[in-house]
Amino acid sequence: MLRSDLMKKVSFAEFGGPDVLHLIDAEEPHAGPGQVRIAVRAAGVNPVDWRIREGQVLGAHPTELPSGVGQDASGVVDEVGEGAEGVEVGDRVFGEGSSTYAEFAVLSAWVRMPEGLTFEEAAGYPSVVETALRIIREVGVRPGQTLLVSGASGGVGSAVLQIARDRGITVIGTAGAANQDYLRSLGALATTYGEGWVERVRRLGRVDAALDLAGSGVIRELVELTGDPRKVISIADLGAPELGVRFSGVAGSVPEALAEAVGLIARGRLHIPVEKSYPLAEAAAAHVDSQAGHTRGRRVIVV
User: Fold this and answer.
1) Which DSSP string do the residues of 86-120 spell out, in sequence order?
2) Is 77:37 a contact under the CB 8 Å cutoff?
3) Which domains does the chain have, with CATH numbers?
4) List of residues 6+ apart from 71 with CB closer than 8 A
5) Confidence at residue 252, expressed as pLDDT on a 0 to 100 scale
6) Which residues pair with 300 in a beta bridge?
7) Please, which pLDDT band fits residue 1 given cuts at 50, 70 and 90?
8) 193/182 Cα distance (integer angstroms)
9) In angstroms, rounded to a whole number, what is the distance separating the alpha carbons of residues 104 and 37?
10) pLDDT for the residue 62
11) For helices 254-266 and 126-139, angle between their N-to-C axes, nearest 10 degrees
C-alpha cells in the first residue's frame, strides 16, 4: 500500500480567469504502469494551460473539475511504475504528464536531461518541441522552401525557427519590434506585424507555407501569401477551419519528439531561453503574462 502524503499543487475548481488558480494541499500522485513520478524542479507554462483553465473546447484535453494545471516538467525521478524501462530513481529527466504545477507529478513520456541543461530550461521543451515538429511536418514545407511564421518569438516559434533552419528551410518570422534581433539570432528573416506587414513579408521573398502561432486574426493574409489554405496551419485560431485552414491541436508522439529534442540540443542546434521564472504561488501571474504574448522564449514555474 503506497503511503499518501500531502504536497503543494496549483488547482482550479471552476473555469475562468487567472484568479481561479489556487495553491492547495493535495495528495501526492503515484506512478502507474509505464509511468514515472518526479520531484518537480520546474514546469513549463504553455498557452494550452490557460486555454484549458478558461474552459475553451479543446478536444484533446477533456477537463474534469477540480483540475490541476500543466503538462510539461523537469525534475528528479523518485518513483518508477511497473514496466517503465530504461529509467531509475535519481535520474534527471524532462517530459510530459499531467498536473505538473506541483511538488510531485507523474510523467507518461520523458527523456534524460542532456549535460549542461538546467531544470528551468528543460521544463520549457516538451510540448513546444512536439508542437514545432508536428506543424512543420503537417504544413509540408521542404528543404529549399520558405516558411512564414506569424508570432515567431515565443516558445513554439523559437523551436520552429531553429528546427526549420537545421533542415535547410528559409524562415521569415513576424514579431514585435523588440524581438526583431532575437528572431535574427535564430536565423530568421525578421519583420514586425501591424499595418503593412503583408507587403513587408513579400519584400523578403516568396512564401511556400505559413504557420499561425499567435491567433492574431491573420489567417486570411497567410492564405493570400501562400496561395493555398492547405499550406497554412494554425495552433492558436480556433476559427481557422472556417477559412479552409487546418487547426492543429492533437499531439503526435511525445517520446519521439523528446528524443529528437535531445539530439538537437546535444548538437547545439536548439536552445530556447527562459524569459521569466515564477514560484508556484505566482502561477496566476505566469498565466497573465503568457496570455499577454510578446514572449521571448519560455516562461516556467520553479518549484
Assistant:
1) S--TT-EEEEEEE--SBSEEEEEEEEEPPTT--HH
2) yes
3) 6-113+273-302 (3.90.180.10), 130-247 (3.40.50.720)
4) 44, 46, 48, 49, 96, 97, 98, 100, 126, 127
5) 84
6) 44, 277
7) very low
8) 15
9) 7
10) 73
11) 100
